[in-house]
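Progress against Task 2.4 (sequence-to-structure conversion) is shown through the following example record, which the project officer requested during the mid-term review.
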Amino acid sequence: MFTIKKLLLCIITIPGALIALMFAGGILAVRKRRYGGALLMASAAALYILSIGPVADFAIGRIELLNHATAHDNADSIILLGGGLVEGAADLTGEHIPSPVMMVRIVECVRLHRRHGLPIVVSGGVVGSGPAEAPVYRRFLVDLGVPPERIIVESRSRDTVENARYVRPIIAERGFRTSILLTSAFHLRRATLIFREEGLSVVPHSCGQLARSKKKLDTYDALPTMHNLYKSSLALREFAGLALYRIKYAVAPSSSTRTTIVSIRRDQ
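Structure tokens generated for the chain above:
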């Protein structure tokens, strides 16, 4: 009964329902000798492949960077990178709340602060027409016990490059030498590249790993889900972003990027 329920949910929800409709439409178009049938079926197959567990875990696992800062890294501050808001959402202490991805970063930041006692630079500005992100993150950090005087807000940046460029003068003004760079595992590889190329000394610290470490596959891994499609989409976006920034900073994949990855894995 459980398996039947899983199959039915897969068929009537996205992306399973969309895959089935695309495939059925492709077959119908081919039978009626209409153009586009093969392309529709190929698109359905691609969507299915990106929506299953083994492919999604492989893709996101290739882009995630897993590293945790330790006391031996001699960092003197934490840089918390923004990750979006749920705008207008009601909350206990104000309006707007961090996105689910950002909540994981905030919780990890509080844990790091409690362990190392370092000041926190929160970076995130206005994206689109919404509110600045960093003040919302600050409110949650304070609610979770971080002293307000230990939080520095940078609320102008709109992307990772601007995170680095607007944080740099803050770091310099306060005399910080090496910062723990905290962001999601899928974003950490690109963020580390950008921050180092922008002249900041950072120790990367990951949170929110998405790639599962399960070794044995089962039947349910063949069912397409939105969560798996989300992981595949993140991986594709980060691969594209990393390639673009390698070109921007003229970083050869075979040289400095590999050196960087080896050096930041020294504590694993």
